[in-house]
Amino acid sequence: ALLGAALIVPSLSASAAQTACDEGEQKIRFSHVVADKGHPKGEAAAEFAARVNATFEGRYCVEVYPSSTLFSDDDVLDALVAGDVEMAAPSLSKFETYTLAFRIFDLPFLFEDIAAVERFQTSPAGEAMKSSMRDRGILGLAYWHNGMKQMSANRPLKAPEDAAGLKFRIQSSDVLDAQFRALGAEPVKLAFKDVYDALGDGRVQGQENTWTNIYTKKFYTRQDGVTETNHGIIDYLVIVSRDWWEGLPAADRAGIGQILVEVSHEYNRFSFELNELAKMRILENGGAVRRLTKGNREKWVDVLTPVWRQFENEIGASLIEAALASNR
Ligand code: LMR
């Protein structure tokens, strides 16, 4: 009964769903960079807002800003600390300047699927990582799922050598930088909002992302095809400004926190379906999706897993072991 019908038959069309706050309500601005519909983060943020706004009518009002309409992923962390926005949910690959703790999530071919990621996130090690930016003024409250990353370019990517010499857009993560260097490609760090244009004007020839991001932001229309590599993951941390959060009356903090726990639990179950649906939509709209042969998949694994060694010391071999153990 708690599940919204909108999610069961998700709509993949874009729309601006901004909440109008009433006079006297305390605004909670929630900034993100993805589509508001047909996307695990967009749908979960909208549902979180709807529930807080119904429960705290007249007192608090969550206003969701999707698609980088308030801050881009490069600016949102500083904005949160400065008090210019209260909540955000950046991908785990975007915290480099605040903490290196999340590097583990970028190691290629480490997690087999999002269920493994969830087992790791709910382990004591994963739970502890949510507080890794506390001293810098940021608290992590919940993990939200997106899904497995796929790779695309302006030419067919079958074997890893097909990526060599191409420029690939990456999120601001040194692990992802190393990943594309291992392929002999050139990584280019760009904000999410610039990817579509950069694929069109030749700043980059390829990118990696989840089906929902590739579909909702139309990246596939500017690529030869998308190869189902499942070589990594995109997941999120819902974050708040520590000072704002701890300044809330305890009962309100508990109430809003409980809504977030419930929405996270329910909506994380849908991320896989939404990504499968987006893949289907790409095909329906004339996009090409390529499967890797078993032999080629082994080649991608062989070329990319040595990247782990470059980051093993700072991440810690035992944490990598714990992550591997979550693939059961
Ligand atoms: C990206 O920059 O590719 C993603 O992190 C965007 C997102 O938030 O899913």
UniProtKB/TrEMBL annotation:
It comes from the Bacteria. Belongs to the bacterial solute-binding protein 7 family. Keywords: Periplasm, Signal, Transport. This is DctP family TRAP transporter solute-binding subunit. InterPro entries: DctP_fam, TRAP_DctP, TRAP_DctP_sf. Transmembrane segments: none annotated. The keyword Transport applies. Residues 1-16 form the signal peptide. Pfam families: DctP. One of its GO terms (cellular component) is outer membrane-bounded periplasmic space. GO terms for biological process: C4-dicarboxylate transport; transmembrane transport. It is found in: Periplasm.
